[in-house]
Give the backbone structure.
Amino acid sequence: MKHWKIGAFAVAGSFLFLAGCKEQEKEVVVSELSSYDLIQDRIFTNSCATAGCHSSEQDNGFKQHGLVLTKGKSYVNLINILSQQPEAKAEGMRRVKPFNSNESLLFHKLNWDASHHGGKQYGLPMPLGGTPLSVGQIEFVRRWVEAGAPQKGSVVDTTLLNDKTPSYIAIFDGLKAPAAGEGYQMKLGPFTVSPNFEREMFSRQMVGNSEDQYVSRVQVLMRPGSHHFILYGFNNKNTLPPLNATRDIRNPDGTTNFLTLLSMQNHVFWAGTQTQVHDYSLPEGAALLLPAGASFDMNSHYVNKTAQPATGEVHVNLHTLPKNKVKHVVTALNLANESFTLPPGKATVATKTFIFKKPTTVLMLTSHTHKLGQKFIIKIKGGSRDGEVVYESIDWEHPLIKNFPKPIQLQAGEGLVSEITYNNTTSKTIRFGLLSEDEMGIIFGYFYE
């Protein structure tokens, strides 16, 4: 199914441009600037080094990406620096690897179509919430990398920067719903995201299953601009939010909706993604239990950094497996450290060990803290892998969701350790609690015994 169209960028696989362009579109760039200076001035400064993104270490996302792209700092932060993006880091990919654009994360992040790198997704395309770079801009960056990514000297034809051909034109066809008896589809939107605004919302919706079902595959497809999407279940089924009502975290003036924040304390992670296209299948014979009459809080977060309203939309398919084919019933991991104390004005590391009484297979891990959480580490306890770090996240708002292609096998008596660093910048002692002024420390994930 076709979800988008790719312009000349994909059609001209070798990135050659036709000489028959209209003369009025050929605006020759006359400049003594180096190729890298042009990338800085024409791309990074305008599209990347903007407030909240890659402008400073104070940006909301800095803990996650660790990358500043302002003039005078960007070059040393890019060249031969190991990426912090989990999938790219696992491959040893550099942000920019001179002479090799295909092994440079920068080139992949600027390409909104994943087909040029085998369909792999290295997090969200950039600029998030902005306009995709043009064909000419992307090709200019590619040729600069292939020329060795020098800081000085003109090594790329500057006229490429005047090619305004769109590299990506989104056409959202949505997901085709599973066939009757093979699953369920849930939808959120379409909804509007105001100009220069981040919209994060929740909406509780019924799945539509009248009896217990077993989900073996989760698909998610979203319009561009999404930061993340999560399906949440609930700890307490007696205090559920209203059905089909939109609950925004931010009011239209940007202030916080505290009633929405309060409802989040009842959440249990069930499924989620930090990429626009997500298709996750559990191991053969394994499936998540979907209790009869299930409902989920659909959590969508969109970023719009343009001057025009944007549209958000999410489609989710839950593919089911017949009960007689289910060998392992997967349930949500929910391991909370509720016994820590955070003295005022100092950093504290809270550690707790969780031991499993039966052999346990862990398929996915993610984490949850409030705003004082700085780093969340999960280690294996016991066995041959004792002390091995299997999860690390440094963004409390948007924690890493880590699926393990090779599941973690733990024997009875082995377990997981949560090691959470908090920085209590307040003047009062903080403990575990359900309010936003309290703190949390929870390991979420998938497992089966």
